[in-house]
Design goal:
Elements: H1 6-18, H2 22-67, H3 75-92, H4 106-114, H5 117-130, H6 138-148, H7 152-162, H8 164-194
Length: about 200
Amino acid sequence: MPYSLLPTLLLQILVIGYTPGPANIYSLAMSLRHGRRESLRMWLGLLAGFSIAACVMAVLTHLIGIAIGEYVSYLKYAGAAYLVCLAYKIYKRNGQMSERDSEGSFWGGMIVQMTNAKMLLFELAAFSTFVLPYSNRLADLLEVSAWLALAGPGGNLAWLLAGSYLRGFFAQYGRQVDVLSAIALILCALWIVVS
């Protein structure tokens, strides 16, 4: 990945990893219900699930790069389209949060993260946008996986630790946060297309 794309990747990590999504809301709910200390066990499950999913997605992306290497540069448009769709979904949400209630266990956290479509699609979009057009090496894909850990487990931990403070903030300013997040995602999509 060219280092000139790192700011775009970091902005996507910030927007996608730290805005409300299944694993972040789950982290918040578990923190509110079980407390921070108890919820850290669930977060370790989220971390394990993210790590497994990121490695599987890196290998799948590597195989996609081998199979359709000459056409890989076109995948950035699919990644940009995904970001625009995600921006629309966030904008349409209208500041409303929903919670998925379940037990705050390691296995519960792992299952939530491994089935988190938001993160799986983000990983695939990030790999096909930031790595495959420049390299098909598995090591390069795994390097970007490490950056993506800032998005998944990093965002989940931030929500867990922030607990009820963020819940009140998003209840009061949810619409404004959604609009800003949608704008940031559209800017990321535009940057990907023009770069």
